[in-house]
């Protein structure tokens, strides 16, 4: 297919991620129009063939599909609010990080203005964009997604989760939660080992290997969470609650702050107090729901 036959796309927001998105559309042969509050950030893309719009309204009017990637929800409302009328009959794909509530709010707003809305969550960093390992989660209008799936495929692997526009944000934030949990644990581990001057680079291969082994238990834990049945397979919650205290005591003794690891202690002890000491650790998930 030649460049002329590819769907024209507009990208609004040219931060680190927006520039990567626009670059991937250009690489895919899509006529690409860009707009950014700070106009100078469009220069390198213009040199690669992008059309620079003078205003956000002009950018939206240039393509049937507008992809927005701004800092946050407030920036999205600030930029798109004044151009709502220009979106009529077009598709808006919002890849800005946000909450499920914000995504649903955006979808309602877009519908009021006659636009199709798809929300998205990018599970990748900018250098990954344009490669299959860049997973981009979408939810919202299934017809709009189907119409533009091929175009969105230029960014990475496009996965549509369902018609509820809030789903992509929910999955995105849940995956980020797993990621930050891992980073938090890793940073605490490094603070502990560094307290004895053990080089991080020497210790880290053990962390990678240990986390890899522990990750194999996640699917079984997921089955337990779904069934509500949490049989322990050799490492029950009560035993872990007792051992965990040593992690806190050692941290204090080694001069390491316990802020990152204290909440898990509290949760483990709540589990024991609720009579779940003989269960698997997966039982803790239900204790996290404040409004089950
Ligand atoms: N970069 C990453 O690794 C992650 C990967 C996963 C997805 N996130 C989310 O993507 C959104 C954009 O992230 P970003 O990395 O492009 O962020 P910045 O480089 O900081 O660029 C921010 C852009 O937003 C524009 N902007 C901010 N406030 C306003 C406003 N009030 N009005 C208009 N535009 C605004 C900013 O414009 P400028 O400062 O250049 O004028 C940038 O274009 C984000 O949701 C991540 O969570 C990225």
TrEMBL record:
Ranges where the 6-phosphogluconate dehydrogenase NADP-binding domain occurs: 9-158
A matching Pfam family: RedAm-like_C
A cellular component annotation (GO) from this entry: chromatin
Residues in NADPH-dependent reductive aminase-like C-terminal domain copies: 164-289
GO MF terms, alphabetically ordered: DNA binding; NADP binding; nucleosome binding; oxidoreductase activity
Family statement drawn from the similarity comment of this UniProt entry: Belongs to the HIBADH-related family.
Gene Ontology biological-process entries: transcription elongation-coupled chromatin remodeling
Keywords, comma-separated and alphabetical: Oxidoreductase
Taxonomic lineage of the native organism: Bacteria, Bacillati, Actinomycetota, Actinomycetes, Streptosporangiales
Name this polypeptide is given: 6-phosphogluconate dehydrogenase
InterPro entries reported in the protein's UniProt record: 6PGD_dom2, 6PGDH_NADP-bd, HIBADH-related, HIBADH-related_NP60_sf, NAD(P)-bd_dom_sf, RedAm-like_C
Highest taxon of the lineage: Bacteria
Keyword match Calcium: no
